[in-house]
Specification:
This protein is mainly beta and 115 residues long. Helices cover 0% and strands 50% of the residues.
């Protein structure tokens, strides 16, 4: 079973940037669909972005299109989420997972966007 560990979160001001990482162990991220999902305070899980780690096909939820970029490095067995022009509504715990429902997610990494 692949274990996922997220990192890279932090506290930034509006307009700032962060790059999240998702490192996999116990298996490979190659040739599968992988998700970034997030959970804002007092809200449910929301899928943010998806990537096929074999073809690099990507998709984004409407609210982050043009703002977030998902990528992967199969040689490092790691997936990334570059987040630019961050807004207060991006404040959440971010997880990588095997599906949009958060299956197999790690402990998450917290992102706080506040002035």
């Amino acid at each position: 079973q692949v274990q996922l560990v997220e990192s890279g979160g932090g506290s930034v001001q509006p307009g700032g940037s962060l790059r999240l990482s998702c490192a996999a162990s116990g298996g490979t991220l190659s040739n599968r669909w992988m998700y970034w999902v997030r959970q804002a305070p007092r809200k449910g899980l929301e899928w943010v972005s998806i990537i096929n780690t074999g073809t690099s096909r990507t998709s984004y939820t409407d609210s982050v299109k043009g703002q977030f970029t998902i990528s992967r490095d199969n040689t490092k067995n790691t997936m990334y989420l570059q987040m630019d022009d961050l807004k207060s509504e991006d404040t959440a715990v971010y997880y990588c997972s095997r599906d949009r429902y958060g299956s197999g997610r790690g402990q998450g990494t917290q992102v706080i966007v506040s002035s």
